[in-house]
Design brief:
The structure is a single chain. By secondary structure, this protein is mainly beta. It contains no helices and ten strands. The N and C termini lie far apart (39 Å).
């Protein structure tokens, strides 16, 4: 079973920055498209950023220009650098495959709270 362990969340003021990390397991990590998802209270989980094996990236419109996704295949890790954070970025952030298979395993996520 793939393991996904997210970390790096916390409480930050509007305009601040955080870097999220996702440690994964699996020998085929380097060929997989990975993504960061988030789920805000009362809302469905949404994909905010993805990165392919060839390092092509894609971003949800509201985070474009503020978030950067990158990966380290040697470490089986994927990261999300978040700048200029807004209150509406408050959510639990998860990493997973893109697209996430039906019934996919999800890690515990990491909580991001943007508040003054």
């Amino acid at each position: 079973q793939v393991q996904l362990v997210e970390s790096g969340g916390g409480l930050v003021e509007p305009g601040g920055s955080l870097r999220l990390s996702c440690a994964t397991s699996g020998s085929i990590f380097s060929i997989l498209t990975m993504g960061w998802y988030r789920q805000a209270p009362g809302k469905q989980r949404e994909l905010v950023a993805s990165i392919t094996a060839s390092l092509s990236t894609n971003y949800e419109a509201s985070v474009k220009g503020r978030f950067t996704i990158y990966r380290n295949n040697a470490m089986n890790a994927v990261y999300l650098s978040m700048n200029s954070l807004k209150r509406e970025d408050t959510a639990v952030y998860y990493c997973n495959l893109v697209p996430a298979p039906s019934g996919a395993y999800w890690g515990q996520g990491t909580q991001v709270i943007v508040s003054s």
